[in-house]
Task: inverse folding
């Protein structure tokens, strides 16, 4: 999806990926070490595979307080998870936004 975009453009992908990203060292260059979770679920592996094409997961690459990492809270308030992530390429200067929408 992003391969046709020149490297001189910033690539930003926003969305609710329903993905939990853990803190495994093997993925540190893509997702960093600042995830809210300790394990990576299947959708997280898909997101990592997508991001391995030259982008990083901004929401876990930089440190944030845990209170700001959560993107969904259980109705009972006991669980907070991060399932939405921002992916972007931080090394270029122009702007390009890729978005896909569907109409009901």
Result:
């Amino acid at each position: 999806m992003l391969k046709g975009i020149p490297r001189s453009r910033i690539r930003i992908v926003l969305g609710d990926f329903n993905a939990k990203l853990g803190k495994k060292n093997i993925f540190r260059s893509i997702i960093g070490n600042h995830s809210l979770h300790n394990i990576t679920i299947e959708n997280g592996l898909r997101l990592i595979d997508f991001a391995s094409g030259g982008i990083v997961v901004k929401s876990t690459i930089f440190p944030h307080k845990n209170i700001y990492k959560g993107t969904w809270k259980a109705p009972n308030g006991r669980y907070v998870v991060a399932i939405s992530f921002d992916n972007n390429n931080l090394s270029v200067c122009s702007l390009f936004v890729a978005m896909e929408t569907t109409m009901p």
